Request: fold
Amino acid sequence: MGLVDFIEESLKDRFPNIGIRKEIFSLSTFKFKKISISNNGSKLKILDSSIGYPKNLEIKDKIYKLNSNNPSEIFHEKGFFEKKVIFVKDINRINLKYLFLLNPYLVLTNSKFKKPIYSENFPIVSIWNPLEDETEVSVSGKIKKDEIKGTNYFIDIGYGPYYFYILFPFDSYFQTKDSLNFYGTFNLLKEILRRLFEVRYPKGYRIRILFNDLSYFNYYGLKKHLENIQEKNIICFLNLEATGIGNEKLILKNNRIFLDRFTEKRINKIIDEIGIKIKKERLKEWSYLDEILPDVPIIWFYSQPNEEKYRLKKEFLPKKIEKNMAYVAFSIINNLYKGVIWV
Amino acid sequence: MSLEIILRLIITVTALFLIFNSNLEYKTALYALSGLYFTQFLIFYLFEKSKYYNYINLIVDISFLMLITFTTKTPYFSLFTIPFISNFLNSYKSFFYYLILSIIPISFGFYLSNFNEILIIPIFFAGILGYLKLKKEQDKINIYINELKNEMENLYIKNIAFQEKISEYEDIAVIYNTMNKLKDNKITLQSWLYGVYEELNADGVVLFDFKNSKCINIGTGKCDKEILKYITDELDILEDTPVNDKLNSKKVVSILCEFNENINCVLLFCYTEDLNDNFEKFRIIKDYLTLYYLKWNNNQ
Reply:
């Protein structure tokens, strides 16, 4: 059973009278049909490649090894790597933000991808053999266009012209229902829904829970859904990506600042009153969430550091982590804009 | 193909064979009934997930078995109730429901044979006992798996707690690394400032460099010379002062690099709310920055 059917059936089992609405769309994206990298005549074994790069690859050049993932050193060597081939030992330890700064032609790496990488500016290819600095490689890659279908579901609670979005990004192309980060977050969302239905939900604006598909493709489902909504009607986003699996931190900024002054103050007050301690940090990995509606605040409790969240299966997850997070999320949904009059 | 369908197929084919071998007048009706039994099972199979599926199916199966035993006069056909137990081993209630219902065809078969074929009854109970033994083994394995699962969950919590601790120390190690690179002049002040701005989660950073008469700012920091009047201490957190108004931030951390009554630089970090226990890192930055100015600017 596909992930999309699993979501729909699971929601209908748990909440029999819920009204789920559906949106179907398709995305055409680029993938590498065939890459061949050879070093001094011997071919290198290719493990994985990123998606989204729209041109064919053809280069014969030396590679330059990036020795550290310290942002100061990367900034220092900014102009030097322009349009060159870079070799990074472990792609999971370096924030993609710094690679975008360098603007290379191609990035080679030794490590497998923890989660699928989408990159339009340059491709990232992971190879089996380690390479020394300044070795000659010749790369040729052909891309093919792919049509992928996606489905969004959304549920409305309450009435009003303004929207408080609860986002659940998933990906029917890459994720499975047994993976830890999907299962944990889905259970958390069902618990929040149960509390909203059985205890209380805020009045004056509409709460829309959006299950957006194809989120590993630069949040395509979310962008597609927001084409029909006016930006001035959106109050804020509560993002439940990788929430509910432990070590949650409130994300303050990635490239842009996620929370405005008013929202941040009120969230701090709510968290103090609850008594649960949550630290605030910037995002240490990379996310394309910055590009979506820069004027709308995003509240995101992201699980970091957590190296296992894309690797483990659901049997590892204890129940009490989900309960803590459901309490925090429920309090925020109900109290964040309490007393604010929406005209 | 599902095992349930195969079981029903075996029962239907045996019934057809027994009907074929008997001397009845209404054979075609019985053939039709057997076919009907199999098709109704296939139709009911669509409702497999319903709560009462197993209970209703048992009644239908047992009535078919009793019909065939009665018409073909083969008491041993009623022993086909034994394989149906596999759906009723989940609770005591369902097990007793099965037991009570399946005694009926067994005793009916026993009665049909004029109480001669007494073997039916022990075979029935022996068959059930085999399934109960299997269930016991299954329960043992389930208990072991549950214990392992508890261990997995505890280990997961410990794992992420350790990762949290490691990342705290890693942050400090990265600061040391960056400051050493600056002290050895391997990176410029501009690059260093960018790195520090990223690592300390600040909204903005301003560096007034007196030795080189320069001012560098990143993010929300501004190069406003009037701020310098209010900076007096070496390492301080400013709140509700004119500096905060000028830089438009709730908390400002000020670092003053001074040696022998010469002020070399003033470094300011702008924050909106939380500093997140970064104080150690500021101390490290102050010490190394002073060293940097001593080492490189005294040589010129």
